[in-house]
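Entry 12.
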Amino acid sequence: MTDELYHADLMDLLESLWGEGFLSPGGPEEVARVLEGEDIRGASVLDIGCGAGGIDLALVRNHGAGYVTGLDVEDGVLTRARALVASAGAAERIGLIKVAPGPLPFPPETFDVVFSKDSIVHIPDKEALMAEVARVLKPGGRFLASDWLIGHDGPPSPAMRAYMEAEELDFGMASPDRYRAACAAAGLEDVGIVDRNPWYLEVARTELSRMQGPWADEVARRLGPDFVAKNIAIWQKMIPVLESGEHRPTHIRARKP
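Predicted 3D structure (tokens):
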């Protein structure tokens, strides 16, 4: 075990739920939904929070991205991502970089698309984030992302706080209104917000059912029953805040003029 948030055991558990290279729900199908109606063929894409590499492979293989630069802050996920990309023979079209939290290490107007899937929840300063997104996008470039939002401004409810503390993933959730305002302050236009709460509520219920069935026995043999039980408890805390609407997985998109 390391002090990294996404340690090897957690990555193993999440990939067993969501597919090789994916540390958030929906797999390549949800990547496609984030991109729905957008053509990224030949585009230079920045992926903020590339995780274990499955997203970047989907961007190249399924959607024709010209080159994807994947960023993450942890060595463990990047090691796994690099192995996955290499085994897929995609290293010429995907570059993976470790970065420190803070400004993006690129010149202005570098990318056609900035993409992110369920990773910017770990960045608390949404205003600084969106300013950086706008800076590195070319004119006409697009921000296409999904994130885990909270349904309101202000402190989380006790149930939401209990879920966030159980996750131990340093969540910095923001509301849809805050994202809209951050995009506008950064000069981005055509801001779109699509609520994915109903979709993930049903997915999460299915995931919990799997975690309480034969899947749990197989995973427990590899990772230990205590670790599986801990994650079952997380899902049991998450589903009520999905049901209440306070936890709001959301698609976000915007365009640089």
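Annotation: The mean pLDDT is 93. The chain has one domain: 8-251.
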